[in-house]
Amino acid sequence: MKKYLIIATLFLGACASFMGKTNYVPIGPQNLSRQVQNVKDMPIFSNPDQVKKPCARIGFYQVQNLPNDKKVIMREIDKVREFAAKKGANAIMLRQYANDDNTSYPVNLSSYFLKYMDEISPEDEQKIEDFVNTSAIMDELR
Fold first, then answer.
1. Is 91 exposed, middle or buried (0-12, 13-18, 19+ CB in 10 A)?
2. How far apart (Å, rounded) are the C-alpha atoms in residues 1 and 115?
3. 8-65: per-residue pLDDT in tens?
4. Where are the domains of the chain?
5. CA dist 17 → 52, 62, 64, 95 (Å)
């Protein structure tokens, strides 16, 4: 029995090592109205020049220490798209990096969530105004 417990523990540890460490930093108003109905349709850009609409960055999301496996990375990108859509993003600016010594493992993903400014609802305008007012108050307190 103890042998099976050790094997199960090692297996679960190996599975956990395939999961990257995530970090999300809100840098704009959050939980804006959802514009993207199908997250598979959410545009992913790799260069700011590709974005043709006026937009604002509403969040920064990072996934660290992913294995250099295309299926794992694509699954993680799908998760990032879903999370971005829940926050009200219309698109993602995505970058992929190798670790500090430029080897192929682990892979780190960094992304900005983009909200198109020409698709703002009245409710979103109020959230933006509230965010700006809160930011101004925080600046005064510093």
1. buried
2. 54
3. 444 444 444 456 789 999 888 887 887 777 888 899 999 999 999 999 999 999 999 8
4. 18-121
5. 38, 17, 11, 22
**Would you state the structure tokens that stand for residue 63, as one six-digit string?**
């996934």
* Cα torsion 88, 93, 99, 104: sign: positive
> Peptide bond preceding 106: is omega within 30 degrees of 0, i.e. cis?
yes
Q: Could you give the 3-state DSSP secondary structure of residue 82?
A: helix
How far apart, in Å, are the Cα atoms of 136 and each of 8, 84, 125? 52, 25, 17
Q: Mind listing the pLDDT tens digit for each residue in 49-102?
A: 999 999 999 999 999 988 888 899 899 999 999 999 999 899 999 988 765 655
Nearest to 34 by CA among 22, 42, 44: 42
Domain over 18-121 is classified CATH 1.10.287:
no
